[in-house]
Amino acid sequence: MNKNQTSKHHQLIIIGAGGAGLMAAVTARDLGIDAAIIEGNDRIGKKVLTTGNGRCNITNESTAMGTDEAVALSRKYHSNQTGFPLPVLQQFGVRQTIDLFSTLGLPLISLEDGRMYPMSLQAASVLDIFQLALEDRNVPVYFKNKVVDVIFSPNHPRFTIKCRTESEEQVVYTSEYLFLCTGGLTAPKTGTDGSGYVLAERLGHTLISPVPGIVQLKLDYPYLKELSGIKFEGLGHIIVRGEVIRSEYGEILFTDYGISGPPILQLSRKAAYHLGSGEAVTLSVDLMPGRTEEEVVEFLDMHWGIFGHRTVADSFIGILNKKLVPVLLKEAEIDQQPHLLCQDLSWKTKKKFYRILKHWEFKVTDTNSFTNAQTTAGGIDTVELKEGTLESKLVPGLYLAGEVMDVDGDCGGYNLQWAWSSGYVAAMSLAKHLSSV
Ligand SMILES: Cc1cc2nc3c(=O)[nH]c(=O)nc-3n(C[C@H](O)[C@H](O)[C@H](O)COP(=O)(O)OP(=O)(O)OC[C@H]3O[C@@H](n4cnc5c(N)ncnc54)[C@H](O)[C@@H]3O)c2cc1C
């Protein structure tokens, strides 16, 4: 070891002080494990601060109502191994999360759609509470230490963790157990640059190509400038090879590059995967999801019949967002006839309106980048992890938690829930293992 190197040993080292790492550290310490965290940033949970528009949507209680809560919750997650999240969520789900935060001194409140937040509605409170919990438990956090390499040895100590500090000093830590809680690729400014994937790959793990999840879609559409900023309630469908593969309802927002809003963010993961494999992806928007196609035809025919003396543009007043109408007239190819009356609409033009109102189609060209995304779909292959314990099948003593692995959740608090659940389960599994040896 040269003179710039220092070395510290802990029973367990956790790389990453995000949601998963923090939950793992507090749980491990409560279970009597000598745990320490190594974090590249100068503070804990930089990403948590940005979550839920600064309010931190910690979890979602809407799945905690039925009889089989964990099964309902697990449907909110996606992975190449669809059944992988369930045994983790069965051990630590929404109720346990609410209870644990209450124990730590952070009461939660439920707002729209079951989304739960700290009562203060400040993401910073979540970090303050974790900071206090770490201090109460004397958990060391080594800040400004970027882990650049991890070496596994079958002898003791098993893990040698090499870090680089801001001053280019090399620091070496050693441990018997290692938790990789390094997150994915989203919001790289918060410290997640994908270096955790490199560390896992060096230890023999396989990376399933990450793509941005919960992200806006880019569209190839000639009238985006006119539409930018318009919000409306609608039903979005992602269509691949002529088949609807996922649908979501809610407030949709056009932007100058494409489309956003909760339903679009929810659909984006499917779009990203299919675009990534070179397939054509179409977004179809239903502007009148409350009515069937037949009902829309019947409704419009009656409406145009009653108000036949009005212009076509005026006939949509009170029915659609007014700002959408000029573009719909372009789509129906009657924008050059501003005085066209409903009574003079041709059958061909009417059919165009029926189609646009129920199936307004857009070519999806791309998603926005990881910088704008809220989660990473893909990650370290869960086939290489033991179900229900999160220990590596390849490297004894290595556990993964959080977004680093190939599990991602829907919008609405489910990604942080995965961080809490997997962080807790990794720590609990290690404690059980230690008590059995
Ligand atoms: C803008 C935004 C809003 C979001 N809002 C919500 C929301 O409201 N609700 C919700 O459920 N989810 C939300 N998410 C998603 C959620 O924040 C993440 O899924 C979750 O924080 C992942 O937790 P994690 O612990 O796995 O990783 P992270 O929180 O990303 O933490 C990983 C940590 O590891 C550190 N690290 C990485 N590599 C190294 C290394 N080599 N050496 C040392 N340290 C390293 C990083 O600095 C970082 O602190 C949002 C995400 C974004 C970007």
Automatic annotation (TrEMBL):
Its cofactor is FAD. Keywords: FAD, Flavoprotein. Gene3D superfamilies: FAD/NAD(P)-binding domain (3.50.50.60), HI0933 insert domain-like (1.10.8.260), Translation factors (2.40.30.10). InterPro entries: BaiN-like (IPR004792), BaiN-like_dom_sf (IPR023166), FAD/NAD-bd_sf (IPR036188), RsdA/BaiN/AoA(So)-like_dom (IPR055178), RsdA/BaiN/AoA(So)_Rossmann (IPR057661). Pfam families: HI0933_like (PF03486), HI0933_like_1st (PF22780). The keyword Iron does not apply. Residues 11-428 form the RsdA/BaiN/AoA(So)-like Rossmann fold-like domain. Residues 212-374 form the RsdA/BaiN/AoA(So)-like insert domain. This is NAD(P)/FAD-dependent oxidoreductase.
